[in-house]
Specification:
alpha+beta, 19 strands, 35% helix, 508 residues, elongated, five-stranded parallel sheet, six-stranded antiparallel sheet
Length: 508
Amino acid sequence: MDDDETLQDTCRDENDDSDEWDEMEVAGEQTTCLFCPLQFLTIAVALDHCRAEHNFDLLELKNKYNMDCYSYIKMINYIRMQRPDPKILTESSVALWDDDVYLKTGEMESWLMYDFEDLGSAPSTPHYAIDGKTPISNLNFSDLQRQIEDLNLQLKHKCTLLELAIKDIEKMKKITRTFVEGRDGPEKPFHITGYDSDYFNSYSHFGIHHEMLNDRVRTESYRDAILNNSESFKDNIVLDVGCGTGILSLFSAKAGASKVIGIDQSEVVYKAMDIIRENNYYDTIHLMKGRIEDTNLPAEKVDIIVSEWMGYFLLFEGMLDSFIHARDRYLAPGGLLLPNRCNLNLIGCSDLERYDKLINFWDNVYGFSMKCMKSEVISEAFVETVPGDKVMTDPIILKEIDLRNCTVDTCDFSSSFVLKANKNAVLTCLVGYFDTFFDLPKSVHFSTGPEAPKTHWQQSVFYLKETINMSAGDVIEGSLVCSRLKKNVRGLSVTITLGKNKYHYNLD
């Protein structure tokens, strides 16, 4: 018997389980109000409370928007996710929940099992007996309907649970198939597909968002690119990939976008929803929690994709893959990408004081030699701010990335380089940084290099085990190979060759 037949048979078999439901009814499962923490024994009583205390009349809303059961499910999920003021729902000229994304249920609850189609028989104002003398309150009327409602809930609840179980089984089959197929056969192109909850959890903390928003170079560059080119945004649909606190979505809405869709997998997106409401952009900006790779957006195509996807050494964190997926799946022909290109650069620096503190420190530690630790220190790429006066060579471009046509293989590359000294100094490290470009009618760009204003990205520093004395005009040739780390799909492995010396570094 297949899954569909099982589901149908189970849904038909409501009579066999009636005793079980009687036991559940005795347990007194509570229904929580849609707008406050109060709980009630039945949906009917909860509806009376919503009418009296929150001025929220479900029957009135049903008639106003000609709602069906699907609209009702979307409305309940919208309320639970967005937590709106009931006044916004009743006074809005359109159904704010009219979006298929709200058909996806989260935690199962009694509101979603309520027989919405029978609502038309429930009164929204006090009823009276036929003789016109004896009043029957909404509460008493609701109690009379309780048995009928619970019988309807029985079937819907069990069918819903079974359907969810079937979906979970299919997901487990898919995951198992992925593991089995991935073990044998030729190597397949790399894609980030999950198992990175630690990465998204790191963006749930307040501190990292404060640091990024406080980075004026980063935030003001995006602001200027968007607001100074408002004619490119007016009446267009914008997708904000990795929206975080929603600052880029807010800029886009302010620039005149007709609709902004923001998506982020971290928990901060719930705070972003509060921020959107706080600034009265809830009619324009629609935020979603999830990964862009496995979330269906409420738009077939978008006109503009904006994202702050760059990581340390530009490619660390692997968020470029999500940006590429969004581009290939949702960007309309001729649409805009912001930013649209980036350069990854390399430069030579000399900082003997820092080198002594970090590397030569291990030569003598309280009278003991710990030189064996040097190789461990050298293998790490350091993210730190390099003073501009420590730069001793001209910069070179390791890789140019055109966001319109780059692929997920962009993180794997090799590049030869020649660095020319512009002063007499000792080369202690090579430093990586990136430049970002918004090629618009009013173009904007910024750099994360040592000689540019400081950003939260700082620079990626690769210390040498053997320093090199150079005079002004001297050149040094080498190569750099970058690839993804196997143990951490969002990390990078960097190998630098200088003459006979080969150095391996991890950004992890």
